[in-house]
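Residues pack. Consider this:
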Amino acid sequence: MAWFVYIVRCADDSLYTGVATDVARRITEHNESPKGARYTASRRPVHLVYTASCATRSDAMKEEWRIKQLTRSDKMILIASWDVAYEPV
């Protein structure tokens, strides 16, 4: 099973990073369900701005941690480099 790390832009222009096996479902949860993260619940709607596939859950969590250590400007560079055509969502 493939795992993904993703970044969403919240309505207040903040960024949230997470991991999921089904990014589309997770974005729907962030926007419509109490299953979404507490952080995003008060910052709806959220929009997907980056995703990357990982081989395992462990790899996805390591990448999530790495991204969370980046500055906002570095995250914006990462987001700008994302090519939607190559990432399955």
User: Anything to note?
Assistant: Residues 3-86 form a domain with the GIY-YIG endonuclease fold (CATH 3.40.1440.10). The longest strand covers residues 47-54. The chain has one domain: 3-86.
